[in-house]
Write a structure and sequence with these properties.
The structure holds two protein chains of two kinds. By secondary structure, chain A is mainly α. Helix content of chain A is 75%, strand content 0%. Chain A folds into two domains: 160 residues; 239 residues, Cytochrome c oxidase-like, subunit I domain (Cytochrome C Oxidase, Chain A). In chain A, helix 8 runs antiparallel to helix 10, helix 14 packs across helix 15 and helix 14 packs antiparallel against helix 16. Chain A is globular and about 70 Å long. Chain A starts with 8 loop residues before the first helix and ends in a 10-residue tail after the last helix. In chain B, strands 1-2 form a two-stranded antiparallel ribbon. In chain B, strand 1 and strand 2 form a beta hairpin. By secondary structure, chain B is mainly alpha-helical. Chain B is built from five helices and two strands. The chains are: A mainly alpha, B mainly alpha.
Chain lengths: 460, 148
């Protein structure tokens, strides 16, 4: 560790991992409820489980991005973080607000939570992924502003690199588009249209800039390839991200009451959305092949390659499967969407957090050359368990989606099964999904265990 | 491929392509916002429809159901509930919905459960008006059949 202020990243990383464990536990509970509707009901109905599951994901990724940023920005800027104290305060504010919100979801009915938090003054609740009470949303804005301020000041006062500038661009984009979460018009169609400005333009535009910058940083550190080369790749990736991803938002505007031209524009633009993810694979593998140094932290590079590959599979391949309007007409709002969502978020965003944590945590714990070989081999096992578990879960959801479409969507109204009957016909597949979900959890627990593996003492 | 591209070229593609993409997306968005009122029959949003949307939101209906295909996939699509469950008859749909909401949760072992939301008759009426309005939105004839 070159700068002592990088140490503020540590609690962010640890908390992100704890939230991930929570996210998976709630996901598994939903998996059980899919099969046994009485499980946890009425104590925690499905909508609450799902809200906790998805909100934990969003918050853990934000914690992961913040930890990653606080770790890499001092090194990129060649100076201490502008205000380590502000970063510490931000951590506690965000952690407390996050936990309080989750407890609110769990302890009172959602309508009561809306009443308690004066949702009527500025109604923003009750929309997918943006279920947080308005007061929490305001808190998120403040946390993100403090995060951006700290990062910007550090970059301005220090060395400016392509990585830090692109990271910062992504952060400003993240903050800007979140503001649409406060716009809830009476017209549901208008509401849906701008809702995607937060959701799509986060995950398929601004977050990809952040992802690219974080990936580039770890590749520089673990391969020793010179910056000119890395920067060039990074620019190409994010150029393709914006070119495909912005108009690609149109693939959400097919069937929600928006004009018909989106059927064409959304299909064509989003057909190009796998390109930046494919470039990330080329990027990671080319840099690894041309490496100038043999870094002892081999597992960090494996995570870096993994995030590129699984991100491409989940966001690129599984996205493309149903992104063309004539296909989406039948797949829209089925388990196929859930399949895509799971692998995309895991591959692109959860795995980039693992990449950074895997690279930075050993250094923060006083092991500049990475963990010892035993710990790394445990971590490698956990890597494969989580990746195989997520891919298995995704394949199961894909099968579920295809069966659902065959039974419910393709036949004429007279022959088609209704929703609940089609779901009953899929229950075995949901059982398979649940089993792979358990594998992901065991993988994560194995990962936690890798932190505590004792190495045999090497006598110097 | 990458060997022939320099860092400067890549940066220009990023700035040029990014700016182009932003302009195209902004232009289309402005046009869409102009067209939405007509496509969605904005003039038919009564006080009751607007209140119904708040009932929909404050009970997190989208946490289990989809509406026009968006939401959770645990429970049926409700964008076309008016056609499917009310046969496009307002009085019939309202009667059905009131009865349905009152009967929750159904006493069928291990069936997926819908909670009891304790809505007032007015709230159920608003919710029905919101779902009726939604079913009339021009959304490219989706879903493929009435099953949702």
């Amino acid at each position: 560790m070159k700068y002592s202020s990088q140490m503020v990243a540590k609690p962010y990383f640890i908390f992100a991992l704890i939230l991930l464990a929570g996210e998976i536990v709630f996901g598994l509970s939903m998996g059980v409820q899919y099969l046994y509707g009485d499980f946890l009901f009425p104590a925690i109905p499905f909508n609450v489980l799902r809200m906790v599951h998805t909100n934990l994901l969003i918050v853990l990724l934000l914690f992961g991005f913040m930890g990653a940023t606080y770790y890499l920005i001092p090194e990129e800027s060649e100076r201490e973080l502008w205000s380590p104290m502000l970063a510490k305060i931000t951590f506690w504010v965000f952690a407390v607000a996050g936990v309080a919100t989750i407890l609110g979801y769990l302890l009172v009915p959602y309508a009561t939570l809306a009443e308690l938090t004066y949702n009527n003054l500025l109604p923003t609740m009750g929309r997918e992924f943006l279920e947080q009470p308005t007061i929490t949303k305001i808190g998120i804005v403040l946390v993100v502003l403090s995060y951006i301020l700290n990062t910007t000041m550090t970059v301005i006062k220090g060395r400016k690199t392509t990585i830090s500038v692109i990271l910062l661009t992504g952060l400003f984009g993240l903050a800007f588009f979140f503001l649409f979460a406060f716009y809830v018009p009476e017209n549901l169609v208008m509401d849906k249209f701008f809702w995607w400005f937060v959701v799509h333009l986060w995950v398929e535009a601004t977050w990809e800039l952040i992802l690219g910058a974080l990936l580039a940083f770890v590749l520089i550190k673990t391969t020793g390839v010179d910056r000119e080369h890395i920067d060039k790749w990074l620019y190409l990736i994010i150029a393709m991200t914006l070119i495909s991803g912005l108009a690609g938002t149109g693939h959400h505007f097919f069937f929600i009451g928006t004009p018909g031209y989106w059927l064409w524009i959304g299909s064509i633009a989003s057909a190009a959305e796998p390109i930046p993810f494919f470039l990330m694979i080329l990027f990671a593998y080319t840099m690894a092949r041309n490496r100038r140094i043999q870094h002892d932290n081999k597992i960090a590079l494996i995570w870096a390659k993994g995030t590129a590959v699984v991100g491409f599979l989940g966001a690129g391949v599984w996205g493309f499967l149903h992104t063309l309007a004539p296909i989406n007409y039948y797949t829209h709002g089925t388990q196929l969407t859930a399949a895509h969502g799971h692998l995309a978020f895991f591959g692109a965003y959860v795995m980039i957090c693992f990449t950074l944590i895997s690279y930075a945590m050993p250094i923060l714990r006083g092991r500049p050359h990475g963990n010892g070989p035993k710990a790394q081999s445990v971590e490698l096992t956990s890597f494969w368990m989580m990746v195989i578990g997520m891919i298995g879960l995704t394949l199961a959801l894909t099968a579920a989606g295809i069966i659902q479409i065959q039974l419910q969507r393709l036949p004429d109204a007279a022959d088609a099964l209704d929703f609940m009957s089609a779901q009953a016909a899929i229950s075995t597949v949901y059982g398979v999904r649940l089993a792979f979900g358990v594998m992901v959890l065991v993988g994560l627990l194995t990962y936690f265990y890798s932190f505590f593996v004792k190495e045999e003492k090497v006598t110097a | 491929m990458a060997e022939r591209i320099t860092k400067n070229m890549a940066r220009n593609i990023y700035f040029g392509g990014g700016l182009f993409a932003i302009l195209v997306f902004t232009g289309l968005s402005v046009d869409t916002v102009k067209q939405i009122p007509k496509l969605s029959h904005d003039d038919k949003i009564t006080e009751s429809v607007a209140r119904g949307k708040v009932v929909w939101e404050e009970n997190n209906c989208v946490g289990c159901h989809t509406i026009m295909g968006e939401g959770a996939y645990y429970a049926p699509e409700l964008g076309n509930a008016f056609a499917r469950l009310g046969a496009n008859d307002e009085a019939a749909f309202k009667t059905y919905l009131a009865g349905w909401m009152a009967a929750q949760p159904l006493d069928t072992p291990d069936r997926r459960k819908m909670p009891q939301f304790h809505l007032s008759p007015e709230q159920v009426n608003h919710l029905a008006d919101f779902l009726i309005w939604t079913s009339r939105v021009n959304n490219q004839e989706w879903p493929p059949n009435i099953k949702g």
